Amino acid sequence: MNAKALFTLSAIYLAMVGFALMIVPLQFGRGAVPPDASPELVALLRLLGGPFLGIAVLNWLSRNADPSEIRPVVLANMIGFGAVAANDVWGVGSGEARDIAKYFLLLHGLLTGAFAILAYRARAKAE
Questions:
Q1: Are 51 and 71 in contact (CB under 8 A)?
Q2: Most buried by CB count within 10 Å: which residue of 4, 16, 44, 75?
Q3: Over the stretch 25-73, which tens digit does the pLDDT of each residue have?
Q4: Any transmembrane segments, and where (predicted)?
């Protein structure tokens, strides 16, 4: 996958998650968030949507840049998606996660791998 496609895909995905957390947090968290969630929990979920939107914009604006010029953005995405994938592994492996988590594990793992490959290629190109 080329850098432009990866940044575009991740931007769209992160924007969807961000908007879902902000606009429909109870529906987005179905099975993990109780239907009678406290207003504080709903506010926290909405708060978490903001950084997702910020990273989505960063990725969108980075989609046409040369990967060697945006190494910090590539590494940040690799670490961020890697951390989320590790959390998915824990949740799926322990049985604590929702059933849908195995699909998110696959998606987050693929995104982590794609950003890792992009980071490797940018590093190799710079040398």
A1: no
A2: 75
A3: 999 999 899 999 999 999 999 999 999 999 999 999 999 998 778 899 9
A4: 7-29, 41-61, 73-91, 103-122
